[in-house]
Write a structure and sequence with these properties.
The protein is an alpha/beta fold. The chain folds into two domains: about 90 residues, D-Maltodextrin-Binding Protein, domain 2, CATH 3.40.190; about 80 residues, 3-Layer(aba) Sandwich (D-Maltodextrin-Binding Protein, domain 2). The chain contains five helices and eight strands. Strands 2-1-3-8-4 form a five-stranded mixed β-sheet. β1, α1 and β2 form a beta-alpha-beta unit. It is elongated.
Length: about 190
């Protein structure tokens, strides 16, 4: 049996549709490995994984990078919080709030009040569910940890985050290009 093709992915990235297409087309097993955003490049650079679905920005030196899709930043707060009454909020609306910081996120909104020690995204959302503080995360992360006692609202004046596929410049073999083809929606019979 061939060695598995290994693809890391950050929290909130959704590799399932590509994994299904890979498994329909290829003999090599596909191994999907979750990684923290703060460690998203390491596996690619040290050869532990073949490719990674990362949240930009990353250091692109020595990497191929294909931006895939944008993610809307949202504020997550307790269902009783004032943001529950809004369709969207601006950063100025959150100026007096305690900002809970997930440790796995390298992405930081430009908010000066950082009152909480770093914690996991799940723990951050549990903390805000208790009515203490707010957390700003990509919508995909908020959906992953959705609870009935929290709300999420888009933050209108924050730029979207971007999910991208990265791999080493010198790791550009047939299997790598096959995965790129899957991600780009090429059919099994199309060529590069």
């Amino acid at each position: 049996m061939p060695d598995p093709f290994r693809v890391a992915f950050v929290t909130g990235a959704t590799p399932d549709k590509w994994a299904r297409a890979w498994r329909e087309r290829r003999r090599e097993p596909l191994e999907l490995l979750p990684v923290l955003e703060t460690e998203q490049e390491h596996g690619v650079r040290d050869g532990a994984v073949d490719m990674a679905l990362v949240r930009l920005p990353v250091d692109r030196d020595g990497l191929h990078c294909i931006p895939l899709y944008a993610e809307v930043p949202v504020v997550v707060a307790s269902a009783e919080h004032f943001v529950a009454a809004a369709d969207e909020v601006a950063l100025a609306d959150l100026a007096e709030e305690q900002l809970v910081r997930p440790h796995s996120s390298g992405w930081r909104p430009d908010v000066e009040q950082l009152d909480w020690p770093p914690m996991s995204e799940k723990d951050a959302i549990e903390t805000v569910a208790a009515g203490t503080g707010v957390v700003i995360v990509p919508m995909s992360v908020a959906r992953l940890h959705q609870r009935k006692d929290v709300v999420q609202r888009p933050v209108s004046d924050l730029d979207p985050t971007q999910i991208a596929l990265v791999w080493l410049l010198d790791r550009d073999g047939e299997d790598t290009q096959a995965f790129v083809g899957v991600v780009r929606g090429r059919s099994a019979n199309s060529s590069r």
